[in-house]
Design goal:
two-stranded antiparallel sheet; Protein crossbronx; 6 strands; alpha+beta; Ubiquitin Conjugating Enzyme; globular
Length: about 240
C-alpha cells in the first residue's frame, strides 16, 4: 500500500507515534537520574513513571505517577498532565486528585521547545527544593497553590513540614508492592527481593554484565521487557547506573 492510499487519520496517528517515540528516546539520552518512565503498551499517550528522590527534603521518597499526553501531542499547546498515584504532601500537588501544577514551568506547551525530559527535570526539582517553587507566584487560575496548607506550613514551620513529608514518604513505601491496578505489561511493577532468583542478576548488574533497563525498577522489579533494574533491599537506593 502506497502512502497516497493510507487514510489521512492513519498517517497522522503513525506520525504522532514516531514523535512520541522520539520523546522517549530523548528521555533516555538525557539520563534523568532516579526517574523511570515508559509509555503504556496499549496507549502511547499514557506513560507510567516512578521517581526515586535522592536529595533534598523528600530524600528516600519513592513516588508513582502517570503522565497523560494531550490527544494532539506534541502540536497541542495543552500541557501534559502529571498525576501521582498515592497520597502526596507537596505545595504543588493537589491532595485530592494527586495532580501536579505545572503552570509555573509550562504555562503552555510549545512544540519543538518543550519536551518530556524537561518535565521530568522539573519533577526532580520540586522534590529537591519545594521552597524554591514558592518564590515565584503561582500561575493557577485561583491564585492559590494546589495544597495551600502545605505551602503555608513550609513557609512558616519548616520542621513541621518535613515531618509531614516523612509521613508521606512512609505511606508511599507501604504501597510499593501493591498489586498493579492494570494488566498493562508496561506498568512498572515491584516485587519483594528474592536472593535465589534476583541475587545472581544483581551481581551481574554490579559487574556490568547485565543490561540495565530504564523503564522498570524494583527490589526486584520484573516485567516482560528486557533486563532488570534494582534498588537496595530495605533502603530503596537504586543500584542501576544513571
Amino acid at each position: 500500500m502506497s502512502q497516497d492510499t493510507v487514510p489521512e487519520d492513519v498517517q497522522a496517528t503513525i506520525q504522532q507515534e514516531y514523535k512520541i517515540l522520539a520523546e522517549y528516546k530523548m528521555v533516555a539520552s538525557e539520563k534523568v537520574g532516579g526517574i523511570y518512565v515508559i509509555p503504556s503498551f496499549a496507549n502511547s499517550l499514557l506513560w507510567y513513571g516512578v521517581i526515586f528522590v535522592r536529595q533534598g527534603m523528600y530524600e528516600e521518597g519513592i513516588f508513582r505517577f502517570n503522565i497523560s499526553l494531550p490527544d494532539k501531542f506534541p502540536e497541542d499547546k495543552t500541557v501534559p498532565t502529571v498525576i501521582f498515584q498515592n497520597e502526596m504532601y507537596h505545595p504543588l500537588i493537589c491532595p485530592f486528585t494527586g495532580t501536579l501544577d505545572l503552570t509555573q514551568a509550562f504555562p503552555v506547551w510549545l512544540c519543538g521547545e518543550d519536551h518530556i525530559w524537561q518535565l521530568l527535570k522539573y519533577l526532580q526539582a520540586i522534590f529537591i527544593d519545594p521552597l524554591e517553587c514558592l518564590r515565584t507566584p503561582t500561575n493557577s487560575p485561583n491564585g492559590k497553590w494546589p495544597n495551600s496548607e502545605a505551602a503555608e506550613l513550609l513557609m512558616q514551620n519548616r520542621a513541621g513540614f518535613i515531618a509531614k513529608v516523612k509521613e508521606c514518604i512512609t505511606n508511599n513505601k507501604e504501597h510499593l508492592y501493591d498489586e498493579p491496578p492494570t494488566d498493562d505489561p508496561h506498568y512498572i511493577a515491584f516485587e519483594q527481593f528474592n536472593d535465589e532468583v534476583h541475587g545472581p542478576v544483581k551481581q551481574r548488574i554490579r559487574e556490568g554484565k547485565e543490561p540495565i533497563l530504564t523503564n522498570t525498577t524494583s527490589s526486584a522489579a520484573s516485567s516482560s521487557a528486557k533486563g532488570l533494574s534494582w534498588v537496595k533491599e530495605g533502603e530503596y537506593v537504586p543500584l542501576s547506573m544513571d
